[in-house]
Design brief:
By secondary structure, the chain is mainly α. It has one domain. The chain is built from four helices and two strands; from the N terminus they run H-E-H-E-H-H. It has a two-stranded antiparallel sheet with strand order 1-2. Helix 3 crosses helix 4.
């Protein structure tokens, strides 16, 4: 009997732990602290929060770059070649 678990008979393409680790990296490292200007906005949640994310479009781009590190390396080299400075992260 195989040690892999299948959902509805589908064989997973990769381990779930890899996806979980990638998403955890994005959640922990790329969210931004809440500032006073954000807290004054009418859409600010009533529950306590510590950090927030940029729009979903940028999160999807970041997820792609973390998932495929070859593209991430290319983008970093291009930023360096063009002389563009990165934001302090």
């Amino acid at each position: 009997m195989s040690s892999q678990r299948f959902i509805a008979g589908a064989i997973p393409e990769r381990y779930v732990e890899v996806d979980a680790a990638r998403l955890l990296l994005i959640l922990c490292e790329f969210s931004e602290p809440n500032g006073d200007a954000l807290k004054a906005e009418p859409f600010y949640p009533t529950r306590p929060t510590v950090k927030h994310f940029t729009p979903e479009y940028y999160l999807q781009k970041l997820d792609f770059l973390v998932r495929y590190p070859g593209y991430l390396a290319y983008e970093i080299v291009e930023l360096h070649r063009l002389g563009l400075k990165q934001a302090n992260v």
